[in-house]
Amino acid sequence: MAPCIHEAGHAVVAHLLGICIDCVLVTPEGAGETRLAEKGTIPLSPPDSDRREIQIALAGEIAETRYCEIVGLPETPGQHPRWGRDQDNHRAHMVSVKTVGGDYERAQELITDLRPRVEVEVERNWDQIVQLANDLYRDGNLSGPGLDRILGS
């Protein structure tokens, strides 16, 4: 279920930030992907677009961590798979470095600044994340009307 929560976190936060979602997928092995749609997404200038991308990258980990805390899964590396966390953290870091012109310290400050905002949105929209994750767990993928029903598109 944790990979489904992880992908649902990405999808819900992306939707809240004005990005249209094409589909959300989770394989039986636990790999996941949230595919963003080009059409219908609110365009932003590069700095704002980058900040939005960082928030979406952080959302999966934040939702997954909250889920693990609720159900009592350990957070110690090696005790359960890290699913997409490392890849998402790397993406957030690389985008933030680009956003601040290559300054690694400022890049970390940007991530530190954005993380609490994403945590608030994950908390505020937790029921929607769980609903999307449950349907994703059941079906393996969501798109079209099934996704729109949950996201309110």
Account of the 3D structure:
This protein is mainly alpha-helical and 153 residues long. The protein has a single domain (2-151), classed as Peptidase M41 (Methane Monooxygenase Hydroxylase, Chain G, domain 1). The protein has helices at residues 2-16, 46-71, 85-99, 104-124, 126-139, 144-151, and strands at residues 21-26, 32-36, 141-143. A 3-stranded antiparallel β-sheet has the order 2-1-3. A hairpin with a 5-residue loop joins strand 1 and strand 2. Helix 1 (2-16) crosses helix 5, helix 2 (46-71) packs antiparallel against helix 3 and helix 3 crosses helix 4. The radius of gyration is 15 Å and the shape is globular.
Give a brief rundown of this model.
With 153 residues, this protein is mainly α.
Give the SSE layout.
Layout: H1 2-16, E1 21-26, E2 32-36, H2 46-71, H3 85-99, H4 104-124, H5 126-139, E3 141-143, H6 144-151
Helix pairs in contact: 1-2, 1-5, 2-3, 2-4, 3-4, 5-6
